[in-house]
Amino acid sequence: MYGGNADFIEDLYERYLADPESIDLAWRVRFDDMCQPAANEAAETPHGPVRENFMRLAQESRSRARARSTEHLEPAAAEKQSAVLGLITGYRYRGHQVANLDPIHLRETPRIADLDPAYHNLEPNDLDLVFHTGSLYAPDRMPLREIVAMVEQTYCGTVGSEYMHITSTPERRWIQKRLEGYRATPELDDADRRWLLTLLTAAEGFEKYLHQRYVGQKRFSLEGGDALIPMLDELIQRAGRKGQQEIVIGMAHRGRLNVLTNLFGKPPTDIFDEFEGRVHMDWRKMAGDVKYHMGFATDIETPGGIVHLVLGFNPSHLEIINPVIEGSVRARQRRRLDRAGNLVLPVLIHGDAAFAGQGVVMETLQLSQTRSYSTGGTVHIVINNQIGFTTSHPLDARSSAYCTDVGKLVQAPVFHVNGDDPEAVIFVTRMALDFRNQFHKDVIIDLVCYRRLGHNEADEPAVTQPMMYAKIRNHPTPRAVYADRLVAGGVIEKDAVDAMIADYRDSLEQGVVVARPVLCGLDHLYRVDWGFCRGTDWDQDLDTGVPLAKLQALTEAMLRLPEGFALHPRVEKLWDERRKMGQGDQLLNWGFAENLAYATLLDAGIPVRLSGQDVGRGTFVHRHAKIHDQLTGDSYTPLQHLSDTQGAFIAIDSILSEEAVLGYEYGFATAEPTALTLWEAQFGDFANGAQVVIDQFITSAGTKWGLCCGLVMLLPHGLEGQGAEHSSARIERFLQLSAEHNIQVCVPTTPAQMFHLLRRQMVRDYRKPLIVMTPKSLLRHRLAVSSLDELAGGQFQTIIPEIDPIDPAGVERLIFCCGKVYFDLLEARRARSLTNAAIIRLEQLYPFPSEPFAAAIDHYGATEEIVWCQEEPQNQGAWDQIKHRFHNLIQMGKRPYYVGRASSAAPAVGHRAAHVEQHERLIDEALTGQFNPKMNKRIPPQ
Fold first, then answer.
1. Pair 307, 299: CB distance under 8 Å
2. Whole-structure pTM over 0.85, yes or no?
3. What digits encode the pLDDT tens for the residues 68-91?
4. In Å, what is the CA distance from 856 to each residue of 3, 223, 799, 839?
5. Which of the residue ranges 410-419, 446-455, 529-538, 813-822 would you say has the lowest mean pLDDT?
6. Residue 712 CA to its chain's centroid (Å)
7. Assigned fold of 801-928
8. I want to staple 420 with a disulfide (CB 3.0 to 4.6 A). Which of 103, 517, 662, 836 is the partner?
9. pLDDT tens by residue, 861-876
10. Domain boundaries in the chain?
């Protein structure tokens, strides 16, 4: 009845509760005595009393051990006792360095002095002396020989554990209890072992079958890391047993086809069709993707019920899937009201070189324990092939000792395990999942294995790694290693092993599902129907106005503060101004109209999630969605307190990350179509740090994978004379990526336009990403204002016509522009009292508003000069991506001109004086028609 064996005894007790006859008589009598109810109580069914009893026993035994370890000891004996405890600590800290982790033994095992008893002044004749074991989960007193054998088995076998860097004592003690209590060895019966062999046979059999049938075709084989299949199978089944209902997995391409076939139950015939080029989709409507990038979803039966499995679509940008999966998981948890992360589990599968080398790994880990991004802990699995693509030496692959060292920054435990020992793999899988569920923190499994073939099947790895691949060629496969072990142990006959191989191959030949039985046609309570967002009309005529009375009521609700709340004087002044705006006594500015848009959506029950590095206040101090009490420091978010029936609102001041946070919000938006999800960059060019998310997911996922997403990106844009940085949000890049109605690119210039644009994003019955070039100086520009009436009626205008009373017949020059430059043109024209130039704003650059554009030109039918004016350099901004829209004008005898800055490698000049000179020149040129001939040659006809 030792406290360190509590887990083992709890398992016995669970069996006792289910069937008392299933355990030994001595234990049955003991449990009967411990759980006798009082006369007036019902019989005990939970194991609370047993747990408490063993916790008490463990505490008492440790207390006694500590007391005895120092009581009545001679100085020499006390020194020896201290040395023994130091030796135990040495194994806990450094045992992993000499553990048997590498199946192919690439490098010599180092000598670690801390693990040598002599280093601690312990002599050979001390081995048979009995010492107190301290905090070791073992009997209170043991001979030193047995202590050494125990810690060697626990810390230096085929499992190497790193956890002593964790500062939380409960977490460290929990891990010690699991490792030392079980000696890093799982409890498996012969049926379990035969099932393990079955899974390894499937993992190997799938790869060999494809290798023979589709010679030379890329599949990114799992061979060498075959233990991933039993690891994931155990993870899924145990998660289901623990009550988890959904597992969302992100992984790169190595082993992906194997996972899809042997775990997700994707029919082998579908895999074969992909290899043979048979396409089950209309490629005219959807581009598709290579087979090892595709996602999948299925339902699996587990001892605890049905588990919904999702494998995220992932391009070849390796770790970029990490934040996308985390965001998707957060949305799924929110839908299930799973605040602790007990129902939806994220699992990320990495490559060793990518885990160490890709910065998004660190960014995603930094999100893991923050309030608005945590998903209750992630199980990370590293398929450690011990080689990064063609890197020839570990010294060239990373600077850290292990590829997993980055995980220590969030104090995640790391369990290294030899991929040729599937039983050890099962042990660490169970422990990792249980740790995650117990402490809701990330945990890392480092599956140390090898890559039998090259980076892809056409690669010859021995060209650059001759010594490594000489060992691999002579090394038996994980299945063969384990099969020999089971045959030698009498667990299975050799003929049965051969039959397993043949049966699996026959199943593949027949094309039947080879995974555990999958469940089809289930109607999930939390399933999302994306059908409404497909195949709809972009040009829907939508009234996004809100009744005036509702706007005023929401204004009052937004301005309501808790009693005694002390506003900052600047915010108090802004509150007074917003009150006047809501009453119609003052025109609306940008921040107020934006908040009103959110309020109207929330009032309709639509959740709003807004994130970025300074979104609560707003980078330019314009939003103030979150305010702070100047006396207490408490924050308050008025949009969360509109009514009892409103949608949820959250404004997240994120960590200083673009790539991970944008990827996270994209993942959230793909899993939650009913919420408005927004990400705001501090400046528009901050999005440069997340370009891979934009390229591989936001702009292309729809056409590659058929995914819908309503994510909104708010990118402050405008040349303000403050240098090249933070001037441009790179409109040209988004327009270059625009095709097939994949995204919307808009440049609203008034608060009313922003109000209607945000509302349109949710009122429309489809979901496409919306890229908004938001202003900086316009946030407080005296002309960039709107009235309440403009919010109460109307809709977003893709083109805003001339607003001054200019006679079309007298217009000689028609100027098209977008963004801030419009107000510069307007003010200059008014100052000069010009009436021969009309100015029209393009508020939506993609999808291009062709009909309104043509109508605007027709309205000024006699005008021959058509000008596109922009403040960005000629090779940037919108011009190069929309100038083909002007080609039809040539047939009408009109002359299109470009007016703006000359082409430049930088977005803007670095000196204020140069900026002003350039800007004045382009304004004058646009208004007067004195065009620069170097930049304004007529566009040749196509």
1. yes
2. yes
3. 545 556 888 889 999 999 999 999
4. 83, 63, 9, 10
5. 529-538
6. 17
7. Rossmann fold (3.40.50)
8. 103
9. 888 889 999 999 999 9
10. 190-510, 548-792, 801-928
